[in-house]
Amino acid sequence: MPTDAMTLKCIDHVRMFVGNARQSAYFYRNAFGFEVIAYGGLETGMKHEACYVLRQGQITFVLASPLSALHPEAHRLVRHGDGVQSIALEVDDVRAAFEVAVARGAQAASPPRTVEDEHGAIDLAEIHAYGDTTHTLLNRSRYQGVFAPGFKPLDADRYSPRTFHPVGLKAIDHIVANVEEGKMGDWVDYYSKIMGFSLLASFDDKDISTEYSALMSRVVADGRGRIKFPINEPAKSRRRSQIDEFLEYYGGPGVQHIALATGDIIASVRAMAANDVSFLKVPSAYYEMLPQRVGTIQEDLRELAELGILVDRDDEGYLLQIFTKPVEDRPTLFLEIIQRRGAQSFGKGNFKALFEAIEREQARRGTL
Fold first, then answer.
1. Dihedrals φ, ψ of 188, to 5°?
2. For an engineered disulfide with 101, which of 106, 231, 256, 261 has Cβ 3.0 to 4.6 Å away?
3. Cβ-count burial of 288 within 10 angstroms (0-12 exposed, 13-18 middle, 19+ buried)?
4. Is the pTM of this model over 0.90?
5. Between β-strands 228-234 and 215-221, what pairing exists: parallel, antiparallel or unpaired?
6. Domains of the chain in sequence order
């Protein structure tokens, strides 16, 4: 069991490093309904990067771009393109959590420090995870500002609040990592040993395979089940899997997708589709078999088929989910929209249909 020092409270935010933070903020705002609440840059005293803070429900994204080639992380854009740099986790005592993590074998990325301004102080530190992704450990209980020192509420001349249209996203359900073949078990052990996570679910190539490709996945979660990290690795197959494609174009291990929870997936997907969000679609035959596979559900099957929403059931209920196409030109990061009606699983019954849909996109790209 984790000590009190390593008890994680929640995912505080996800920091993405992108080529143009202002344009990316516009995209996530107008496509996915995020409100841009804060800005940090030259005007606020940040000399090396520009950052926008986006929020919807309990979800916070931070989009950061370098202001020159001298930024210590500028090389990330050449190697990865846009992607997740850090998953920030809230803890009660940053120094104690950092020291426990390092004592258990975590590699330090940035030692504990305190940043402060007139609104208070935030404690933070960083440890390395898969690839060059990090976990930021932070505590903001002494801070009353809009986000963090160096950030100011968004000036209306950048984004007018009058055109803000949320789509009903509420929280981060889980965040999925892709790692190299043979490394999945190492990272399951890492989260178990360093953070006290437990194994929630495990899928092998018999569960996740198509005619052409396969992968394996394990899901780790904190003790309270609030933080869930599925970890994927490629399996031996006839052709290159989606994990292999990701590893090639991302330049190594990293975050494959972020699953965002909604209380009304039909309304959320309709709103995002109207905003030109592109979703993966499955053949109509999927919906012909659905009643037999999942039984009675509250939603209208015709609406689900129209929108391309998938359904799966476990012992505790059912879930509805849909996946966007990659949110940048590289076939790397994408988003999942999920609504849980009791189910605590991850859509095992949808794996084959989903991965065949991804393979159709790979075939279009010539990367299958």
1. -65, -45
2. 106
3. exposed
4. yes
5. antiparallel
6. 4-163 (3.10.180.10), 169-365 (3.10.180.10)
